[in-house]
């Protein structure tokens, strides 16, 4: 017989998850700006919860690299470090190009089988125009490429990296032309892999990532400028 925990014992964890998601969305949407400082009490009052779930949520965000804790001074949203994101994108390029190399070395039928679902979505299915959904599928495209290459450690590191750059990467899909470019470039990369054109596939992938990196940098700077112009409520 399974013993059920009283509701009040499960509630703090659920509250912490709600606070965590709300704060993360505030950071992603620049409602909490890089460099903003705040206390646990301020967040608790705004969300009508105690400080316990707030503290838990903030520790999760700190572990993921979104906030810093200052002794006796509360919490702070991490300042935007473009050099750090440049390094993450460089590492992403290295990992994904290695994955492409390994995929091109597989027997053609095996490679095609591993990437069949990607081909169906990016080359055959009707295109999506919802930027948020395309962003999710774009992330899945690159993670699937790496996972399909067969090295679990490379895939693990790539997954951790993907989480770190998500805050800015998703901004690449706020314009229709970038969505169209993503569909076109993904299809071209897949075709080169299927033809076992390693150098061509790696070059197209590198250029694809570089274009995305440049675009999200411009959009991030613009959004930060716009957010600073918003009146304080």
Automatic annotation (TrEMBL):
The superkingdom listed in its UniProt entry is Bacteria
Q: Is Transcription regulation one of the keywords?
A: yes
Work out whether the entry's keyword set contains Chloroplast: no
Boundaries of every HTH gntR-type domain copy: 13-80
Which keywords, in A-to-Z order, does the entry hold? DNA-binding, Transcription, Transcription regulation
Gene3D superfamilies, alphabetically?
GntR ligand-binding domain-like (1.20.120.530), Winged helix-like DNA-binding domain superfamily/Winged helix DNA-binding domain (1.10.10.10)
Gene Ontology molecular function: DNA binding; DNA-binding transcription factor activity
Q: What is the name attached to this protein's record?
A: NtaR
